[in-house]
Design a protein that fits this description.
alpha/beta; Metallo-beta-lactamase, Chain A; Nuclear Transport Factor 2, Chain: A
Length: about 400
């Protein structure tokens, strides 16, 4: 630790960092009031943790830290009230990876303990972050608490196509939705699931695109469930998928890729007192898609029905060779009329029902770009010009390959 003053809050900060290095979560929690609030800006969308239990879950991330160096570049503290505002240059190691970031932290204390904690990376005027949290843990976790469920959104980095794998935590059980593309991220997800200390009741696989299921074998394959139409699709594409993604990712893929074991029909099911609405969509982003609602909490696990500020795969065709974009838009319009207020996309950060309109707008642009582009290079350029800050350019490349190697119609 560099440039930490020898003051009351300076000594408390040193203890805080040492507790992180010791991975002493309970010791860290003792530095906070029982009703403490932590506001995190590690993602562009703020995440708020309230009380000891939510803080404990947030702090599970320190378990992956192997080394931590801090260099204070700004320090400001006051007395009566006791407050601290700092900017830190952080060097962190986790699982052999090293990352450098610039953090911003502010504490408001009450009776010698942290009552309010603003924590996160420095955000620059263009919205970029002062570092990349994915470089630390290779994955990120966002959490939503609503009623009797807690949603954990586990996001792989862009090299793994940035899919969201979702854990729905009920009072006594877990429901897993999808799995990462690459095994290192699946291993990370498995460790995270184990840290929740609850059994996985079911593992739903929403569709046949490999970035949402290739590592299902890392988990209990006997608990995997998929639509019959998805399994039919895999019977045709399975070998081609393995061949294509082996060329891209090599030994980062699991050695024993297995298809989902069980079939599930559309309809409502109850797990641990929570109703899950299993819906089927045909010929949209993929030819068969499972969309899962938690209607009592107004949460939609949309997966690839919705993307959020990432490039989208737009090359799926019907059996008679027509692009599925118009049908996809129809499904979006249909779900937009439903009463869901929290939307979790297949790629990108969760948000509200405004994601329906943004996805529809993108697809309408896609129709125009596909119609006007004569080459894959022109297709990619038009999308990047229209959406310069979107992520996962590999989605553009895969779309272009399918559209311009095999024909737009």
């Amino acid at each position: 630790m560099k440039n930490v003053p020898d003051t009351k809050l300076g000594r408390m900060y040193r203890k805080h960092i040492n507790l992180i290095l010791k991975k002493d979560i309970e010791g860290l929690l003792d530095q906070y009031t029982d009703d403490a609030v932590l506001i995190s800006s590690f993602l562009k969308k703020p995440i708020i943790y309230r009380g000891r239990e939510e803080l404990r879950e947030h702090m599970q991330g320190i378990l992956g830290i192997d080394d931590l160096e801090t260099n204070i570049v700004f320090w400001g503290e006051t007395e009566n009230p006791d407050t601290l505002m700092i900017t830190e240059q952080i060097t962190m190691k986790s699982q052999g990876d090293k990352a450098k970031m610039r953090f911003a932290d502010s504490w408001v204390l009450r009776d010698g303990k942290i009552a309010i904690h603003f924590a996160g990376m420095v955000q620059y005027p263009d919205g970029s972050l002062g570092g990349n949290i994915m470089d630390i843990h290779k994955c990120t976790v966002s959490k939503i608490k609503k009623g009797n469920v807690k949603i954990h959104i586990f996001t792989s980095p862009e090299e793994g196509e940035m899919p969201n794998s979702i854990i729905v935590e009920t009072p006594n059980k877990l429901v897993l939705v999808d799995a990462p593309l690459l095994k290192p991220y699946a291993d990370r997800l498995k460790k995270y699931i184990e840290s929740l200390n609850k059994p996985v009741e079911k593992h739903f696989i929403t569709h046949a695109h490999p970035d949402h299921w290739f590592t299902a074998c890392v988990f209990d394959i006997d608990k995997t469930y998929a639509l019959q139409e998805m399994l039919d699709e895999l019977n045709v594409l399975f070998d081609l998928q393995i061949q294509y993604h082996t060329q891209l990712h090599g030994n980062l893929l699991p050695k024993n890729i297995q298809k989902p074991k069980n079939i599930i029909e559309a309809g409502d099911i109850e797990i641990d007192g929570i109703t899950f609405s299993i819906n089927k969509a045909i010929d949209m982003e993929d030819n068969a898609m499972m969309i899962i609602g938690i209607p009592n909490e107004k949460i939609l696990l949309a997966q690839d029905l919705i993307y959020n500020e990432t490039y989208m795969y737009v090359a799926t065709k019907t059996q008679d060779g027509q692009l599925c974009i118009d049908n996809w838009i129809k499904y979006l319009e249909e779900y937009k009329k439903k009463d869901y207020t929290i939307i979790i996309p297949g790629h990108g950060e969760f948000s509200d029902a405004s994601l329906f309109d943004s996805t529809i707008a993108y697809l309408k642009d896609a129709k125009k770009i596909i119609a006007s582009s004569t080459t894959s290079e022109e297709f990619i350029k038009q999308f990047k010009d229209k959406y310069p800050n979107y992520r996962i350019p590999l989605m553009l490349e895969m779309s272009a390959f399918m559209l311009y190697q095999f024909g737009k119609e």
